[in-house]
Design goal:
By secondary structure, the protein is of the alpha/beta class. Helices cover about 45% and strands about 15% of the residues. It is an enzyme of class 2 (transferase). Belongs to the thiamine-phosphate synthase family.
Length: about 220
C-alpha cells in the first residue's frame, strides 16, 4: 500500500456519463471542495467532441482548484487515449478491450498515469509486467452501474489481490459509506465512487462524509 501522506487514489470520483454537462460541472465542483483526490471522466456514447468538451470543462475546474488551494487533483480519461492527448489530461484508465497498455504508454510518455481494469485472477498476474501506475479492481461488490462483470472479488479477493499486486489498487464496484472501512482494511489504496457522489442531493456533503471515513481508516 501507498505510505505517502499524499495518495491521489484515495477518493477517486468516476463521473456519470448519463448526466448533462451542467450537472457534471456542478457535481465535480462540489466534489472537489468536498475532498476528492482524483477525477475520471467517463463517456460511453462514442461522441468524441462531447467527451472532449466534458474533459475540458472538468480540467478547468481542477485547474481553478489548484490555483486556489495548491492541491493538484489528477484528471483521468476513461478508455480514450486520443481524448487524453487532446486535452493534456494527467492520464488514462484502460479496460481490457481498449488500446494495449504498451501502445498507450508509447503515445502518452512516461509521465502520464495509466490505470488498468482488472477483472480476473489471470489479468491480475499478467499486469505485473505492464507499464501501468495503478489497477482498478472490478468489481468488489455487485453494482447497478456495471452489469457485464466477470468477477465479484469480494473482500477476500481484494485481500488476495493486495498481497500479490505490485501497484496501488483502486477498488471499484458497489462501494459506499457502509463498506468503505472494510474495503480499505482489506488492502485497497483507494476507492472509486460513482453514484454515492454523483447522485447525492448534496455532492459536497457526500464527498466530505466519504473523505472523512477514508482518512479515519487509512
Amino acid at each position: 500500500m501507498i505510505t505517502s501522506n499524499h495518495n491521489p487514489y484515495l477518493l477517486y470520483l468516476v463521473t456519470d456519463d448519463q448526466q448533462n454537462l451542467t450537472t457534471l460541472e456542478h457535481v465535480v465542483r462540489e466534489a472537489v471542495v468536498g475532498g476528492v483526490t482524483m477525477v475520471q471522466i467517463r463517456e460511453k456514447h462514442g461522441d468524441v467532441r462531447a467527451f472532449i468538451q466534458r474533459a475540458q470543462t472538468v480540467k478547468t475546474i481542477l485547474q481553478q482548484a489548484y490555483t486556489a488551494t495548491g492541491r493538484h487533483i489528477p484528471l483521468i480519461i476513461n478508455d480514450r487515449v486520443d481524448v487524453a492527448l487532446a486535452v493534456d489530461a494527467d492520464g488514462v484508465h484502460l479496460g481490457q478491450t481498449d488500446m494495449p497498455v504498451t501502445m498507450a504508454r508509447q503515445l502518452l510518455g512516461k509521465d502520464k498515469l495509466i490505470g488498468l481494469s482488472i477483472e480476473t485472477e489471470q489479468q491480475l498476474i499478467d499486469c505485473a509486467s505492464l507499464p501501468i501506475d495503478y489497477i482498478g479492481l472490478s468489481a468488489i461488490f455487485a453494482t447497478a452501474t456495471k452489469t457485464n462483470l466477470i468477477t465479484h472479488w469480494g473482500l477476500e479477493g481484494l485481500q488476495r489481490a493486495a498481497a500479490i499486486c505490485p501497484f496501488p489498487i483502486v477498488a471499484i464496484g458497489g462501494i459506499n459509506h457502509t463498506n468503505l472501512t472494510e474495503v480499505m482494511a482489506a488492502g485497497a489504496d483507494g476507492v472509486a465512487i460513482v453514484s454515492e457522489i454523483s447522485h447525492a442531493d448534496d455532492p459536497r456533503q457526500a464527498t466530505m462524509a466519504i473523505s472523512s471515513l477514508l482518512n479515519d481508516n487509512y
